[in-house]
Amino acid sequence: MGEIVGTPDGAGKHVGIVVARWNELVTKELLEGCLDELRRCGGPEVTVVRVPGSWEIPLAATALVERGEVDGVVALGCILQGETAHAGQLAGDVAGALMALQNASGVPVAWGVLTPETAAQALDRAGLKHGNKGREAAAALLETASALEQLRGG
Fold first, then answer.
1. Does the 47-145 domain belong in CATH 3.40.50.960?
2. Given strand 45-51, what is the order of strands in its sheet?
3. Which one of 3, 74, 133, 149 has the fewest beta carbons within 10 angstroms of its own beta carbon?
4. Would the CA dihedral through 36, 38, 43, 45 be positive or negative?
5. What residue ranges do the domains of the chain occupy?
6. How distant, in Å, are the alpha carbons of 16, 17, 23, 28, 76 from that of 12?
7. What is the number of other CB atoms lying within 10 angstroms of the CB of residue 140?
8. Residue 76's CB: how many other CB atoms inside 10 A?
9. Active-site residues: which are they?
10. Burial (CB count within 10 angstroms: exposed 0-12, middle 13-18, buried 19+), residue 133
11. pLDDT tens-digit map of 24-68
């Protein structure tokens, strides 16, 4: 059996990006990193959908996939941990919905939703100290789409 390795080549692809406006100081940096990486990787066609918060990301991602026009979706958001269990519940529900979407549809969905404890940690992961998770999600999406294309004989 051979080895299948995806490549981050976006040429000829159409990528959907769903980005939450909540914690916009962070999510705008994630979006810029994501868009920059997509340009660097061949400049696929891009549709950006802005939603109020992370809770709305799965619904918008589902609508993008159902249109049948995207090769994959990048989900970008920032769920800051608080003093209650709300953030953990929200993150789990959003992650589960996005995993279910990609498994049911066969269209990859890349996770670029931060779940840090503090705003400082979020900014660090949006480009300050620990790279840009939006950039990383874009690369992961393109590599996964490429590997799936190979697996499907395309």
1. yes
2. 45-51, 14-20, 72-78, 109-114
3. 3
4. negative
5. 47-145
6. 13, 16, 32, 25, 22
7. 20
8. 31
9. 86
10. buried
11. 989 999 999 999 999 999 989 999 999 999 999 999 999 999 999
Query: What amino acid is encoded at 21 in this protein?
Result: R
> Percentages helix, strand, coil for the chain, rounded to the nearest 5?
50, 20, 30
For 97-124, what is each residue's pLDDT tens digit? 999 999 999 999 999 999 998 888 888 8
Say what the pTM is: 0.93
Given a contact cutoff of 8 angstroms between Cβ atoms, the answer to whether 84 and 54 are in contact is no
Cα separation, 2 vs 8, whole angstroms: 20
Q: Three-state SS for 123?
A: helix
- Token readout for 85 is 């269990």
Buried/exposed 35-60: b ≥16 CB within 10 Å, e otherwise: bebbeebeebebeeeebebbbbbbeb
Angle, CA 100 vertex, CA 86 and CA 63 arms, to 5°: 90
